[in-house]
Structure formats: C-alpha cells, structure tokens
C-alpha cells in the first residue's frame, strides 16, 4: 500500500474521533471510548449526544466528503478541465430547484392537502429535481459528440434552474426564503439515523462504481482518439461516469445541501500530494481526503464555546481556499495533470 495512503488513513481515523468529540459539549477521548465499549460514563447525556447526534454526523461527513471528492475527480478527468466539479452537470441546481419548489410552493401544495417542510420532504424534492436534470443531461449526452458541448449544456441548465429559483424567492415570504437559505448553507447534522440507512447504500453504490471506472478514467486522460484506438466503449464509459457522478452528487446535495469547495479542490490536493494522475491511487486517496477535509470543516464550524454551528459552506471556502492557492503556487502549473 502507498505510504501516503497509509498516513492518510491514520489521519482519517484521528479526524473521525475529533468530529465525534468536539462540539458545544466537549466529550473526552476516555468518555468516548467508554461509550463505544458499553462502559458507564461520567455524564449520562454524553451517550445520547454521541449515539444520536455526533456519530450520525461524523458518518455523514465521511459519506458526503468522500462522495463529493470522487465525483469532482470524475468530472475533472472526464472533461479534462481543472475547473470542473461535482455540480458542473447541473445536478446540484436541479436539487436546489426541487427544494425550492417544496419550500416556496408550500401554499400551493396545501391546496391539494399536501403539507411539506419537513427535512425528509426537502430531501425527496432534491432527489426528484436532481434526477430530472440527470435524465435531461443523459438525453443530451446521446445528441452531442464532444464532452465540451455537454459541459456547456450542464452549465446552461444550472443557470436556468438558478433563475427559476430566484423568481420563486422573489414571490415568497421571508420565512420560506430563510428556510431555503439555511438549506443552501450545507449541514451534516440534519441527517438522522433513519436517513443514513438510505444515504449509505446509495453512496456505497457510487463507491462500487468507482472500481469499474478506473481504466476508462485513465484512458480519458490520453484523449478521445486514443480511447477509441484502445477499444474503449466511449458511449458506455460516458454513461458510467455521468451516472455515478449524478448518483453521488445528487444524493449528497439532497441530504446535506449543496456543499461547496470539497468536490472541486480535493482532487487537486490529491494530485499534488501523490504527484500522479493514476486513478488506481487517486480514487482511494481522494475518497479518504475528501472525508477528512469535510470532517475538519465540520469540527471547525461547531468548536466548543459557539452557541450555534457556523454555516458549513463558509468554513469549507475560508479554510480550503487559501490551502488550494498555496498548493497551486507551490506546484506552478496544474494543467499538466490533464
């Protein structure tokens, strides 16, 4: 096993423990260990906090961070574009539109006897919205030959759906606008144990799909013409990359909101650390690194002493932006990876 990957796994375990320990109530490592082995703890409330809140939140951070990192890696390789991210196909915009229709259309739904506004119904709206955009993008992928055209189509769908959301916001009351705005901040703590039973298998399917994408992704880096000469089924490979990316990014957005930065930056950080574009190393490394980055941002957003959790998206950008800039300046040119 690669030495860097071993170190990363150790850091991953430490970060996971920190994510469970830290919060408005600091739980020491000894107390955490006693909870895990079933021994009595100094404060009975610690066990409820860990089992019902901290542990699901940390597991969600692992699932979301790894999924966003991997989907960002797939899009950057597929389009051979360092600016591509997990939401470049418009999947996140579709999820946002689905949530907007649930939140801002509350009065309309009540006319039909349907009452939305629970977290679960918002997740359903996001899943439906992301699936519809995915279906449209998949349809257009059969009509265009080059990936650049597909990238532009995805960006146009993002712009169109964002415009519709803006119109819905304009005609909505302040309370609904605030609810939608809070969802866009990104949050790992809103996922319950019951929702994890849905989130985990969906992300696991995306992880499993990564195994079958290793060879096509490595060939994509050599160009479409080489891929055809190598006997790669371009249509099947394209559908596979788009489907796995849509599954990961759409599911994560539905349950955690549109989390920024992680999917775009994690693949670049991994390439710079490993100094390779081989997806046999990049895929597991990006998975662990994405989870670590998101959990660290989550810990920072709810440090002890804070009465409320800070917006997760603000933390990911504030902490991650300078790091990526430093790595890019240090390396000099990231386009060589493509």
The profile of the biggest β sheet is: none
Please work out how many helical segments DSSP would assign.
Answer: 14
Strand composition percent: under 5%
Beta strands, count: 0
Query: What radius of gyration results from the CA coordinates?
Result: 20 Å
Span between termini: 25 Å
Q: Helix fraction?
A: over 70%
Oligomeric status: single chain
User: Shape, please?
Assistant: globular
Structural class from helices and strands?
mainly alpha
Average pLDDT score: 83
Task: Spell the H/E element sequence.
Answer: HHHHHHHHHHHHHH
The low-confidence runs, each spanning 5 or more residues with pLDDT under 50, are 110-114
In short:
With 338 residues, this protein is mainly α. Helix 3 crosses helix 12 (262-274), helix 6 (119-141) packs antiparallel against helix 7 and helix 6 (119-141) packs antiparallel against helix 11 (234-256).
Topology:
Blueprint: H1 3-21, H2 29-37, H3 44-79, H4 91-104, H5 106-111, H6 119-141, H7 147-170, H8 174-184, H9 193-220, H10 224-229, H11 234-256, H12 262-274, H13 279-301, H14 312-331
Helix pairs in contact: 1-3, 1-13, 3-9, 3-11, 3-12, 3-13, 4-6, 4-7, 4-8, 4-11, 6-7, 6-11, 9-11, 12-13, 12-14, 13-14
